[in-house]
Amino acid sequence: MSTDNTRETLGFQAEVRQLLKLMIHSLYSNKEIFLRELISNASDAADKLRFEALAAPDLLGGDTELGIRVAYDKDARTISVSDNGIGMSREELVENLGTIARSGTAEFLSRMTGDEKEDARLIGQFGVGFYSAFIVADRVVVEARRAGLDAGEGVRWESDGQGEFTVEAAEVESRGTCVTLHLKDSETEFAESMRLENLIHKYSDHIAFPVTLAGAGEDDEEKVVNLATALWARPRSDISDEEYREFYKHLSHDFADPLRWSHNQVEGKREYTSLLYIPANAPFDLWNREAPRGLKLYVQRVFIMDDAEQFLPLYLRFVKGVVDSSDLPLNVSRELLQQNPDLQAMRGAMTRRVLDMLAKMAADEGDDYRNFWRQFGPVMKEGLIEDPANKEKLSQLLRFATTHGKGADQDQSLDDYVSRMQESQDRIYYLLADNHSTAIASPHLERLRKKDIEVLLLTDRIDPWLVDALRDYDGKELADVAREGLSLPEGDGAMTQDVANEQHKPLLKKIKRVLKDRVEGVNVSRRLVDSPACVVAGEGDLNPSLKRMLEASGQSLPEARPILEVNVEHPLVERLSAEADDERFSALSNVLLDHALLAEGSQIENPAEYVARMNRLLLELDSAPAAK
Ligand code: ADP
Ligand code: MG
Q1: 492 or 268: whose pLDDT is higher?
Q2: Which of 302, 334, 359 represents a domain boundary (last residue)?
Q3: How far apart are CA 402 and CA 408, in angstroms?
């Protein structure tokens, strides 16, 4: 016979070992969730079998009533959860219960802090699934038989959760999987009828398969405990918030409650039901483009696939939920789905439903939307770029930090901004910067601040693209305060750039001559108050923070020199203007530019040269003519 008959001892993948250790510690106060996880897996296994049986009805054999059974034995101190679903082969068992396939897991686990509450939150986002059995058990035995295989082809898996597990061939009477927990001495209270019945209610009323509870005692009668109807198929008015929440946890593997949900039964030309949830926390792999996303797809209650990403745009990848169609064919594949003529309409409707849910959340008083934006703000911004059809709805959902807000929190809407605009103001001003502290210190804000004009402070990586896609809001154009040709509300607009430059022509020309290799031009600034100089981008040039980002990602960009703006009222510029010594004039001009670059967060090309120049100027302090 093959090695399949011999007993093998294997080590858990390093990530599993780490997870087991962390989990037992951090989820201790939440230990009853093991039952939810095991029932959830059993339900998935029944779903999968029903799906495979569509193409291969023989897989069901004579055993067509799919269900889940929870059995307990007080004396033996065991609980078992069994199903007659898809089961597992030996290879599948080793793979599924010995490794974690999600990419980024190792990095995620390394973020664990040792702080119980914080780790529980993190682990909750990740989902621990089957391994949660080890919170209450010191030995777990899994017996499985893949649908389609004979009793003699079963397999037995066993582990104490310490680092190794064994697998061996076993005679397994019926199809499916049975997970038996040998409870720790401290957890024997779980092997008790009322306790289990309550937990099953809590964790599986929404599950579409019957869950029966059976005790080992003579008088214990076996009974179905849950409702055994797919939750989304029930009328909304019959479903409690608690049931919606539990269903979400089953669906998403998230431990936290969802922020909101939207349940719709659509009738008419297309008939389908959707139940969409907004999670409270971003998953650890939100930024991994390959991470699975999408809804769970059912056709007439039959599970068809996980992660059907076709029903929502990429920027709504954090939404969890199910869609159950009455019209799609049962044999629908990902390819067929993509070509389905109804898909676009369903996708459009579900996208609007999510956006409406968010708009409602934003309109409600309270912290929900603020928390949502903290978690998902940058993803929502992708929507403006990806989904121009919903531009209006999306732009109302945007939140920003502004010069009128408190701190770096992004909590001001464009409507908030517009309501505070000055009478003569017809633009929405924004500043792009690498981070909040650079933004609030930016010289570009000086004049606007003095006139009390609000400026949006944009510091997310995606913001340069966002402002490009947004362009205007409520009929007001967006204007970059760090760009040439900035026009401010009346007063300053009176003097155009040309007129201002004309008055200081000799000085500007002289600076330009000295800095000709470093700047595109030199202008008199109308936006500075306290600083001597700043750099701005030309009308058609890339914004400097976008440029830095693209360069950091390895792109080579055409050389674009900035425009230097000088504040002719600043003593330093007056001093420059009075400087007769050519060498000193050149040194001062260069330093002026270097400081302007540093202030906006750019690097100076030649720091050593800057330092040498600066040192020379410092040494000359005594002999320099006094500034007036
Ligand atoms: P998840 O459910 O998120 O995939 P789990 O840790 O809960 O993660 O389970 C890991 C995998 O083990 C499942 O994806 C499934 O392939 C397999 N599995 C677990 N329980 C069962 C079961 N009762 N029947 C069949 N397969 C199962
Ligand atoms: Mg699971």
Answers
A1: 268
A2: 359
A3: 8
Is 217 contained in some domain?
yes
- Helix, strand, coil tally for the chain in percent (to 5): 45, 20, 35
350 shares a domain with 205? no
Instruction: Domain of residue 445: give its range.
Output: 398-493
Residue 369 falls inside a structural domain? no
List Cα–Cα distances, 30 to 26, 120, 136, 255, 494, in angstroms. Answer: 9, 9, 11, 9, 67
- 19-59 residue pLDDT tens: 898 888 788 888 999 999 999 999 999 999 999 999 999 99
The residue whose two tokens read 């600034």 is: 525
Domain CATH for 523: 1.20.120.790
Contact 154, 172 (CB under 8 A): yes
- Please indicate, yes or no, if residue 273 is contained in any of the structural domains: yes
Of 53 and 485, the one with more pLDDT = 53
CATH value at residue 415: 3.40.50.11260
Protein residues with CB under 6 Å of any ligand 1 atom: 37, 41-42, 45, 83, 85-88, 96-97, 127, 129-130, 177, 253
- Which ligand has the minimum distance to the alpha carbon of residue 250? 2
Ligand 2 is an ion; residues with CB less than 5 A from it = 41, 129
Segment holding 324, helix H or strand E: strand 320-325
The pLDDT tens digits of the residues spanning 363-398 come to 997 899 999 999 999 999 999 999 999 999 999 999
Helix axes 193-204, 33-55, angle to 10 degrees: 60
Give the per-residue pLDDT at 114.
77
Domain with residue 332: its CATH number is 3.30.230.80
Pair (509, 442) in one structural domain: no
Q: Are residues 83 and 9 in the same domain?
A: yes
Residue of 48, 100, 130 best suited for mutating to test ligand 1, as the one with most atoms within 8 Å of CB:
130
Integer Cα distance of 59 and 107 in angstroms = 40
- How many domains is the chain partitioned into structurally? 4
State the distance from the centre of ligand 1 to the C-alpha of 83, rounded, in angstroms. 12
Pair 153, 58 in one domain: yes
364 in any annotated domain = no
What is the distance in A from the centroid of ligand 1 to the CA of 50?
16
Mean pLDDT confidence for 104-115: 83
- Distance in angstroms (rounded) separating the CA atoms of residues 599 and 530: 13
Please write the tens of the pLDDT for every residue from 587-621. Answer: 999 999 999 999 888 888 899 999 999 999 898 87
The pLDDT, as a whole number, for residue 491 is 60
Same domain, 133 and 6: yes
155 CB-near residues (< 8 Å, 6+ apart): 88, 89, 90, 93, 143, 144, 145, 167, 168, 169, 170, 172
pLDDT above 80: residue 339: yes
Query: Which atom of ligand 1 approaches the CA of 92 most closely?
Result: 16
Does residue 130 surpass a pLDDT of 50? Answer: yes
In tens, the pLDDT along 515-564 reads: 999 999 999 998 899 999 999 988 878 877 777 778 878 888 777 889 99
How many Å lie between the centroid of ligand 2 and the Cα of residue 78? Answer: 20
Q: Distance from the CA of 102 to the center of ligand 1, in angstroms?
A: 13
Which one of 342, 359, 376 terminates a domain?
A: 359
User: 360 vs 27, which has greater pLDDT?
Assistant: 360
Q: What average pLDDT does this structure show over 128-142?
A: 94
